[in-house]
């Protein structure tokens, strides 16, 4: 049965493989996405190590000169997705978006490196990737943390990867919609509109894109000019974990300067995470840098914090929180607390379970010695696949498959968990 699931997962990866990159799923997302690629490479590595390295190399080949790695690379024309390259207007030879996504690549490279059977290839390819990934991390701490707090801000919900999370609702009230004009969404013709963000949210997503475009996508200006500046614990935890992994890799590959700076980024970030602890929720939560306030939103972003080396008392509290959430839903970990009024079990990041986030949280729980929670998350993830196939996300109460089907990173996580 389990080998059967691994074989099915491999077929999903192969179907979405475009040679040197994979699409998240045919139709809905016809280009290369940043954190999808890094996490999908983990799945490829189990049956084709060279292909896994290529996935990450293709992503990093489109890094901007300032170090930023864009969230979408538009390798070929396809009008099945909105907003396309003409809306972004980033003026690059191979068009890309102008914002970034969670920096999970450092973690993925280290994991693929550690497990590689072809050691010579792994050394060669990791060595070439290391300075590029480090330059991305330097970009984050320079341009997204200009005051040197130790934590970086996202400037667009798409950067978090959790597009319509409840976390952004209040801040989004301050993002205007004037001047946006008419546009035609394409996502709602591929997926059930009830599973997707609302039109009102889309107008604000596009306003931010137009605003940043009017500033020439100059990353030295965007942070201060953005009405949306959000410090997301999950996003920061992923970056911190990647910095720690890059530090270890750099030690191994004889790059002491990269190791030292990466370790300093991680140490400062972990200390600063403490400011995001939300006593009333008993978990981490987002901090709105524009208003200077912690946001009382019980989302999975605050649990994903466990992906980096938070203090053991915090990891224990998160384990307890996940256990409580598990009692309110059949499948852990819902992307929003099922007892909260904003919870919506099928609408994207406002309730559904996502396997990639499950994987990262369970990994963090394992590192923290919280084995029963780790195993519960992994078991629930596989039960979801058995009941509902390789969907983009799932209703945590009913297991209803939501969003796109035959989803690459979902399949990659199944191979990771079962191999
Ligand atoms: C915008 C590709 C991406 C994921 C994100 C997910 C969704 C895009 C969209 O799909 O976002 O980037 O158009 O909805 O929220 O996490 O990387 O799978």
TrEMBL record:
Keywords: Glycosidase, Hydrolase. Residues 29-410 form the Mannosylglycerate hydrolase MGH1-like glycoside hydrolase domain. GO terms for molecular function: hydrolase activity, acting on glycosyl bonds. Gene3D superfamilies: 1.50.10.10. InterPro entries: 6-hairpin_glycosidase_sf, 6hp_glycosidase-like_sf, Glycoside_hydrolase_63, MGH1-like_GH. PANTHER family: MANNOSYL-OLIGOSACCHARIDE GLUCOSIDASE. Belongs to the glycosyl hydrolase 63 family. This is Trehalase family glycosidase. It comes from Thalassococcus lentus.
């Amino acid at each position: 049965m389990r080998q059967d699931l691994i074989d099915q997962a491999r077929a999903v990866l192969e179907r979405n493989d475009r040679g040197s990159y994979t699409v998240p799923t045919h139709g809905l997302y016809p280009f290369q996405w940043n954190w999808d690629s890094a996490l999908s490479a983990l799945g490829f590595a189990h049956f084709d190590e060279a292909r896994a390295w290529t996935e990450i190399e293709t992503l990093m080949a489109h890094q901007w000169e300032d170090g930023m790695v864009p969230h979408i690379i538009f390798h070929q024309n396809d009008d099945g997705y909105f907003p396309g390259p003409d809306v972004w207007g980033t003026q690059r030879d191979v068009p890309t978006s102008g914002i970034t996504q969670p920096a999970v690549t450092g973690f993925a490279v280290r994991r693929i490196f550690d497990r590689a059977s072809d050691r010579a290839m792994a050394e060669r390819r990791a060595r070439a990737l290391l300075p590029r990934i480090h330059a991305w991390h330097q970009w984050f701490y320079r341009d997204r943390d200009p005051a040197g707090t130790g934590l970086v801000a996202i400037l667009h919900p798409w950067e978090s990867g959790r597009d319509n999370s409840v976390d952004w609702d209040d801040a989004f009230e301050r993002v205007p919609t004037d001047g946006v004009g008419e546009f035609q969404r394409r996502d709602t013709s591929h997926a059930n509109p009830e599973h997707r963000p609302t039109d009102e949210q889309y107008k604000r997503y596009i306003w931010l894109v137009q605003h940043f475009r009017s500033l020439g996508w100059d990353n030295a200006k965007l942070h201060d000019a953005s009405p949306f500046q959000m410090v997301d614990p999950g996003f920061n935890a992923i970056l911190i974990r990647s910095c720690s992994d890059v530090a270890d890799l750099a030690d191994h590959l004889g790059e002491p300067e990269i190791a030292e700076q990466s370790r300093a980024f991680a140490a400062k970030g972990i200390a600063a995470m403490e400011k995001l602890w939300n006593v009333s929720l008993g978990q981490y939560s987002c901090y709105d840098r524009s208003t200077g306030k912690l946001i009382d939103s019980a989302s999975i972003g605050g649990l994903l914090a466990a992906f980096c080396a938070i203090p053991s008392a915090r990891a224990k509290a998160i384990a307890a929180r996940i256990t409580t959430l598990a009692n309110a839903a059949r499948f852990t970990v819902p992307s929003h607390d099922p007892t909260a009024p904003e919870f919506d079990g099928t609408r994207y990041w406002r309730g559904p379970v996502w396997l990639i986030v499950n994987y990262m949280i369970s990994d963090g729980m394992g590192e923290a010695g919280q084995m029963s929670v780790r195993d519960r998350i992994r078991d629930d993830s596989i039960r979801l696949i058995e009941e509902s196939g390789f969907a983009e996300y799932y209703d945590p109460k009913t297991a209803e498959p939501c969003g796109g089907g035959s989803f690459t990173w979902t399949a990659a996580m199944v191979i990771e968990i079962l191999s």
